Protein: Antibiotic biosynthesis monooxygenase
Organism: Rhodococcus jostii
Amino acid sequence: MMTIITRVVLREEGAERWDGAMHERVAAAREKSGWISAQLLKGVDEPLERAIVGVWETREDWSAWHHDEAFRATRDELVGLEAGQMDSTWFEVVQNTATEEN
């Protein structure tokens, strides 16, 4: 199992549209091979900061998702809403203690 954490800062005028597009993207990803879970996070101290925590069976599954039409459609919606580059870091899951109740 692999986890990718992506961080980005949004433009104030685009935050609501970005959040909506990312909700659509996560909903579409749920049906893709290898998808396990995702969290969309909003900064507590920096309300324009976002983090996406995606959990996939493999990096290859994630990569295939990035070539999917549903992913590309939301990419077009996100253009110009971010104040800077996204920064992504991969992690291999060592232990997963999540349950259905979380």
